Amino acid sequence: MANRNLYLSNTPVEEALSKYLAALEGLLNPKFEEIPAQESLDRITSEAVYARFSSPLFNAAAMDGITVKASAAAGARESNPLVLKETEDFIYVNTGDKLNHPYDAVIMAEDLIQADGERSVKIIESPSAWQHVRPIGEDIVAGEMIIPGRHKIRPVDIGVLFSGGITSVNVYSRPRVAIIPTGNEIIDISHLQNGEAPEEGRIIESNARMFEAQVKRAGAEGLRFDIVPDSYELLKSAVLKAADDFDMVLINAGSSAGTEDFTVQALRETGDVIVHGVAMKPGKPVILAVVNNKPVIGTPGYPVSAYLSFETFASPVLSVLTGSKEKAMQKTEAVISRRIVSSLKHREYVRVKTGRVDGRLVASPLARGAGAAMSLVRADGFCVIDQQSEGIEAGETAKIELCHSIEEIDRTLVAVGSHDLILDMISDMMSCKYGINLASTHAGSMAGLTALKRGECHIAPVHLLDEDTGGYNKGWIKKILPDKDISLIKGVGRVQGLIVKKNNPLGIKSIADICRCRFINRQRGAGTRLFLDHLLKGEGINPGSIDGYTREGVTHMAVAAAVHGGSADAGLGITSAAKALDLDFIPMGEEEYDFALFSNLLKSEMINIFIDVLKSPGFHQKLDGYTWAYAGEIVSL
Predict the structure, then answer these.
(1) Helix, strand or coil for residue 70?
(2) How would you class 70 by CB atoms within 10 Å of its CB: exposed for 0-12, middle for 13-18, buried for 19 or more?
(3) Is pLDDT above 70 for 6?
């Protein structure tokens, strides 16, 4: 029989965990598997997932009604109604129906007036081009990241995976955890007959059932062993079997200094005890050990002690094996970065991205359309606007219901500004390697600098051509943020050019050629739009002569998707967007894509991790169509 153990230490919690994880270094080897997407709920992705298809796959009606050529329906007003004839002027459509060229607008059924004649309708307001139309790629664009690595898949993610053409995903395998309850005094409730109470001195075993639930919530599979009596040899045998067959072992009770507390002796004989006794109450007698290169944790028998021991020491180990990130729902308040207008008729849940900037939580509203499933994937929470409220003004504080913990949001780097595909790459690398999130809002370079000025973001991605100097970014930053201590983190060099259909069927070669095709532009304030205006000015081209100059795509990928889908013949964008959808590309000029920030933030952990990723060979290997000679360098302005 083993001797009574009296040698409990009082190791600080952080030190104990650090020592234990150091002892497990190289021993915790997660396993991976490929599973059907429909079976992936609550599983953890082992790598980022990128869309195969765009969604919608085609230009689709967003309302029931009729589809028309916007230009042919111009001029209608109440004093001068316009009569349209079926087939000749319009086609009836239902929500979701495909729109074929040349039809480019939808008029809602409730806005139609029956005209004289069987197949005619009357309208009293002219439609604008692309009104009530869901353009190809509005929600998802082929080639963009749907979900990052180490992401717990939710029901909304599964829907988006299928919309993006993904039928299987690579995930962390669920580690198997052995749960061994011990003690002569405990009894399994299933052994009680007809609801009878246990004999005097017997205790219903419950901790192992709690562990089963905690293990499951952590993304693993728990198997509860039969109760092991207070026998040194029986316990040692159970530990050896469990360590051979399972990825992790939990032993409940027998960890203290009683005459029948054999756990620590059994673990010392079968493996290595790293820590016995931690400076926490309750939970002091916890044992952290390694047997057969597997983590084995002995927990005290009192339920609260057992629970706290699991959360403090088992959860971090399981997070490595499962790839999981603990998430907790919380309610808080945040400053709203953009005005939110709401109807008096409804309580509205506006999806938001959040981050802490200069000591305050800032919430940026995401897409509010009913078809914008990706806004659910990207959201950190909801701003709940009560009924009878008309909305919230920019700069006001509002209540936020969070999907993620405050701690996770505090480890979020907020970027507002120009869009580029490299932001997805950087986001994934920061998340997987460092546990830092990158929340990126694609608002255009000008809007990014304005957000930076108002204290609504940490960094502003920019690529703004200064026509006076021919340089990029510095001149505009000095104009918009005068007398501010601003620095520029150098990013990548990239090429702007015309994105056209495969094999360039219209023979587009120069900027002048867009005057003879259907064009799609970027939003006002975007660096790409400023570059286009610069090119047009150089050629003496009037923007009004371009069909589609006022049609806006909010990202480079949205422009590429419009060309790929056939609703536009050309658009100005970057090389990587054209390559992502296998389109042709006519270079127009090189530019610098950088990141503006207040200089005092250069000392922050998140910014330094961001810079490390920019400089890393792993990031450079992912780049195609970019240069990175100065990536991560700091320029003081």
Answers:
(1) helix
(2) buried
(3) no
